[in-house]
Amino acid sequence: MCILRRATCAIVVLAGCGLDVGPPAEWIATDSIDGALAVETGAPPVRPLAPVPSGSRFRIVTFNVDLGGDPARLASEILGNPAIMAADLYLLQEEESYPSEGATRASRLAALLDTGWIYVPGRVKGDGTHGLAILSRYPIGNAAVMELPHTADWKPRIAIRAEITVGATLLHVVDLHLETRINITDRILEVRPAVLDLPPQVIVAGDVNTNPFLWEDGSFPLLPTAQIVDTDQAPLLDDYMRGLGFETPAANVGPTETVHGIESRLDAIFTRGLAVTEAQVERSLDVSDHWPVWVDITLP
Amino acid sequence: MHSPSRWIVVAALLLATTRIASGEPSTGSPTTPPSQLRHALYLEFLGKGGLWGLGYSYQLRPRLALGVVASLSAFDRQRMWSASPSVTVYPLGTRRHRAFLDLGPQLVHVSTPSPVPEWMGTSSTGIGAQLSTGYEHHGRVLVRAFVMGVVGKGGIAPWAGADMGCAF
User: How far apart are CA A133 and CA A289, in angstroms?
Assistant: First the structure.
């Protein structure tokens, strides 16, 4: 092997660093967490719930609410969109909580939407916390959180798992938010522990940040490469999830974010063992850099 | 471990070009580079390879050159190969300092091996085109700085690059 090929190989090997397939992360019951990352919950309003027979429609929304800083405006936008307002379950990302605000943003939003809620902090941010939330018209139970694999350069990311009791049906759901400027191989390694050993019937949704680019060391995207060859991460993550038996009902909904003219499908909903009837993006909401995505399932 | 190995290569090339430049010849007409320096080998930063590339050009005529830039890059476990042949014209300039226009196709292949046993991985190949323009210093040492536009089935994107190498 000539010197040039040897040197090229060395450079390629040295540059091929990324996340390792380390030991599997663990789900931790949220009621066992205390301190700054303690979980907060609120039950749905006490009221007679209409019977929910098998075969009923159940709508799930995933929405990155861009820190949720104005719950009143966020609620107004949601209530102003019939499709999103009609949702039974909201899986939210980029929720935050600050003691100076008096009450958790998720709790204030839930009060306005008349739902129960759970807020799971993923990391400390300033004098508050940043994390995920689930808002539900039905009881939320058995919640757990998993810290996803990450390198020292990435922010800590989490997934939360919960059971939603809908009449006689127990729906398993996972809400997650993945890192932004990483390539698809690291993205698969990041999401893998949260989706690998889930129940046969489950919904996984969230901001998976599947952008259209190859990234150089998490610093900048290769813009020209994306024009010549398909580097879109969204179809590849869909392909990975299909390999685990998931359906990808949101695969063709189109972009869920547009920034500087660049359209990206950053948000996704995956279902397994459930009948899906429809999926859409609602682009009329103007309260976040993301648009919400919803999917209708038929209750088993 | 990305930056150190790349900077070692850059430093080695800088040292090599500096040593070559110390014996720079003074032949050639006022409007063309020294006639015996038809060949050039150079390292490209950003540019046609996206991140970097190794380039070669041949001065066919005083205002016309042919060249190619090839690159192999690693992004975590993904690998990208590219090849960009091109034609360069020099509409303006003097013996060593010239403006140039460069045009040609780009072939790119991205390989995505699976990091996990439950997925097979994938690969993708595409072809596009680039047009770039900039400044060139062409003596024993070749230096270029340029802006470029890349077009393909995904759309159009701006980019930039710089070359450093030696002519012989």
Answer: 18
